[in-house]
């Protein structure tokens, strides 16, 4: 049997085309293509080369419409044993191709051609074509005149095609003349077989009518002689002549006639029997009827041919049969039947020994791989393009075929891939072997046992060792790779759009709230409805998260994996991954965009099993979609222990031009600052410009709900460093203060006293420091006025100031202490003791005691460190606002107090620092209607308490660098709320006494009352009331002139009535009654006077002491209702009479000595 047979095969002139000498492969392919392109030569073009030596036997030669048909056998062909039965089976021509530059010895080359011609004795026309000859070759040819040698001069392709057309027309004329000569000699024979052969040559000469006449004669003679074999051959020739003559006129009656006559041929061959010719006849008829409307009849013919193949003994004949049946089924569109018979062809090839047989089997299996949906991706892409151009196949049937192949043909697919693997290994095609093993393992791992999986892995490694280093394959193997997500730029690299002409372009762009990322801020833009848009910047590293899966029973080592993009303007960084068996792993792949563009993620380039492959994200998405529809069972991400995740869409990625980029580093460590409650610390932040663009503008701000923890920021340090050039860095100081932890200190204190230590209380806070910065605006000055001019965007750096706050020094409680201590009476000559009227100790003139006003703070140290406590007073409000670690705006009141760990201590704070300097006018206008003004008074008092309580602070220090401040404002306000008026408001009047200075000079009185008086005069601004005592220089029976000073601490004039009292040690009045011991001169009671605002008056009187001892002088005054006062220690009169106010001063102690005392 012969391949590629058809009804028209009888008119084909067979010509062998061979290469002579040494010819490069590229040149040989070009020369062969020039020759084989002339398969049909019209008789009209042959007439100029044709010479009629005698009358032509082809009386009905169609010179205007006829043609000669050539069938080129490249590389040679064996002689057919049936060339005497059918003339078209003979080799009628021989063409030798030679390349003169590589075969310069033209004589030796020609001798080689002559030797080849001897192998084809039936060749009637011989030509040796020598391309690119030299002048020496031309001269040699002219001298020796070689008959079959033709030189083809060097020329371009078009000229060579023209030369070749001329040569083939000349060769066709020679064939025609040779056929005429042969027919003329054999025409006299009237035998059946001779007439049949003459008809064959008439067909080869392009004269179908002459051939039909001879065939009819042969048919009649064969029917008479009963020569069934030649009878069938004559009918075949007659049908061929009819088909050629009626070419282009396809009528149903003609097709029916051809079919009936070929059925007769088949029956004749079956009766001979001649199974090979019978099968050829069936194949010829099937190819002639190969149309969709006759598909059923053609299929029945082919299946009957397959039944007859059982009687074929020659394996080559069976091989040809399977090939032709597969080709015809493929032409009908029966892809599955064609693939089945292709597999039969491959199995016949595999049964033979030799590398070429295995290579042929691999090629056949590769052709049928598409039907089984196991084709290579390289052939798949090419066939997809062809299918899109040709609309012969229905898309719906393709989809059905693909789904059926995936769902039902898994075992068949595995068998096909195993056969391809075996054929590739035998053929030595290690690339195809690696590809087949990869497709088998990747597509059918659920149905492969672990041992077979290991065998395939070994096949991959073995095949890859035979491939060149870095070999690439279009078919991916393991692992499975899918896109997990494309993270947006971190908030340290946020991009903020700038509007041309807007100065504060960053307004409204800072994140709100305590979190760096809030899900409510994403997805509200227009791009959220479609694909997610990702912004990348040229020159800045980016990352993409991909998920790798290894569903097999062996470990997979990935030598390298990196991103694959549709644009080449991207530098990808490889990563190495080791995947255990049956596992998944999330891998971050990074790279750097190099050019401004819009790019799309294709997939990943994976170097695994020593071969580089490309894993496309869309392919794995289609696989998972088929799994969701139930078309496939191979889901590598389903039964693994990896993280569950929904399928991510491929986002749109826009690459922006280079932008400035700030990075930060917290000096001392990137972790959270571990601080105690109230601790104040300076944090140094190193900010660097890591881009190639200078920063010309920057703005620093705070955001979030914990801004109170940041005391100050280094605005000036940042602004002074601008412009910040590429590679430059600055250090910005930021002062932070730890907040308080919401706990119940009393409970903790009690538990500690009980011996049960509570767990350590902590609190994490993170204020956000935001820096907006940008480079130079690229818009020109002339374009700034145009609307919509684009300006390069700015960026936002968000720095979380993380604080890990531990429970520190705790305030258990605070209370106001008011104590009474018995007064001390001088009994010896001691130094004068000077007291201010608002001092810590005050004497009750009626009970002879001292009053103490203290704020007691009980502190508890639950930590494992020691604290040093210092009570300080801030000098002014500005000093408090601009707090620094080295704060010089505070004044220490008392030495520091040490509190050991797990101990408590009490700190006393004097309250004289909280006194108001004077009374404002508003305090004198609420006397008449106290109830109506109570609310307003209370509000003003609260404001005053709030301001004045900020002046007292409790600082602590621990170790060398840990300092802080205890928050006591609320404690002071709460403690003073009930008795704030008594503590804060000053006395409206202050009193002082002194001995007349003239008397001191004359009598040389050794008394410090003058000093006390001078101090009183110098401290008018501080509301100081002076008391004094002498050192025994006042004697009995002397009239001592004294002066009482009354000062008005209000801003209004005061009308008052004052008096002076003197008491002895027992507290009895010494100025009146039966036991009076002191005589006086001047007014001591009921003295009316008016004191100007912030002014004073002096009242003079004299005292004569009759009994030595210690005496106390007291001043008192009654303020008349001209002005209404409010405050304490004022004592209101009865509401029935006129409203008056009584004020009393501090005691003035005197020691009186007798004349007899030393």
UniProtKB/TrEMBL annotation:
<dbReference type="InterPro" id="IPR058568">
    <property type="entry name" value="Ig_TRAPPC9_Trs120_4th"/>
</dbReference>
<dbReference type="Pfam" id="PF26283">
    <property type="entry name" value="Ig_TRAPPC9-Trs120_4th"/>
</dbReference>
<dbReference type="InterPro" id="IPR058564">
    <property type="entry name" value="TPR_TRAPPC9_Trs120"/>
</dbReference>
<dbReference type="InterPro" id="IPR013935">
    <property type="entry name" value="Trs120_TRAPPC9"/>
</dbReference>
<feature type="domain" description="Trs120/TRAPPC9 third Ig-like">
    <location>
        <begin position="830"/>
        <end position="984"/>
    </location>
</feature>
<dbReference type="Pfam" id="PF26251">
    <property type="entry name" value="TPR_TRAPPC9-Trs120"/>
</dbReference>
<dbReference type="Pfam" id="PF26254">
    <property type="entry name" value="Ig_TRAPPC9-Trs120_1st"/>
</dbReference>
<protein>
    <recommendedName>
        <fullName>Trafficking protein particle complex subunit 9</fullName>
    </recommendedName>
</protein>
<feature type="region of interest" description="Disordered">
    <location>
        <begin position="378"/>
        <end position="400"/>
    </location>
</feature>
<dbReference type="GO" id="GO:0005802">
    <property type="term" value="C:trans-Golgi network"/>
</dbReference>
<dbReference type="InterPro" id="IPR058567">
    <property type="entry name" value="Ig_TRAPPC9_Trs120_3rd"/>
</dbReference>
<keyword id="KW-0333">Golgi apparatus</keyword>
<feature type="domain" description="Trs120/TRAPPC9 N-terminal">
    <location>
        <begin position="9"/>
        <end position="183"/>
    </location>
</feature>
<dbReference type="Pfam" id="PF08626">
    <property type="entry name" value="TRAPPC9-Trs120"/>
</dbReference>
<dbReference type="InterPro" id="IPR058563">
    <property type="entry name" value="Trs120_TRAPPC9_N"/>
</dbReference>
<feature type="domain" description="Trs120/TRAPPC9 fourth Ig-like">
    <location>
        <begin position="1021"/>
        <end position="1123"/>
    </location>
</feature>
<feature type="domain" description="Trs120/TRAPPC9 N-terminal">
    <location>
        <begin position="184"/>
        <end position="245"/>
    </location>
</feature>
<dbReference type="Pfam" id="PF26282">
    <property type="entry name" value="Ig_TRAPPC9-Trs120_3rd"/>
</dbReference>
<feature type="domain" description="Trs120/TRAPPC9 TPR region">
    <location>
        <begin position="297"/>
        <end position="464"/>
    </location>
</feature>
<feature type="domain" description="Trs120/TRAPPC9 first Ig-like">
    <location>
        <begin position="509"/>
        <end position="610"/>
    </location>
</feature>
<feature type="compositionally biased region" description="Basic and acidic residues">
    <location>
        <begin position="380"/>
        <end position="400"/>
    </location>
</feature>
<dbReference type="InterPro" id="IPR058565">
    <property type="entry name" value="Ig_TRAPPC9_Trs120_1st"/>
</dbReference>
